[in-house]
């Protein structure tokens, strides 16, 4: 009875796989968000550089909550600089979270002896397991 209870405490292969996929999805979401924030930061840099070259009393338009507002350059530049600083801090935080998630995934892989097959491994396994006629059709659909 004690042996079956200890066996039930260990997660099944399907549960381990589901947890691993969840961790990888979380990492992918973090990477996507990081990429989006880096793009926003680059846009802010371009706008700030452009507005620094024009007269401070010149009119410019800014989208605020879906509404286009008319402002002057000298009114907009401080808020853009502030947003740029916040984006920089957010990117640093996301980089740390992404690094931590990668470490967590590697520890999980090591703990549960998970091997991730690359594209070359999958292709070689498919080619050796499939009959010749199936290989040709699979290759034609890939091209």
UniProtKB/TrEMBL annotation:
InterPro entries: PFD2 (IPR027235), PFD_beta-like (IPR002777), Prefoldin (IPR009053). Residues 109-143 are annotated as: Disordered. Pfam families: Prefoldin_2 (PF01920). Keywords: Chaperone. It comes from the Eukaryota. Heterohexamer of two PFD-alpha type and four PFD-beta type subunits. Belongs to the prefoldin subunit beta family. Binds specifically to cytosolic chaperonin (c-CPN) and transfers target proteins to it. Binds to nascent polypeptide chain and promotes folding in an environment in which there are many competing pathways for nonnative proteins. This is Prefoldin subunit 2. It comes from Trichogramma kaykai. The lineage of its organism: Eukaryota, Metazoa, Ecdysozoa, Arthropoda, Hexapoda.
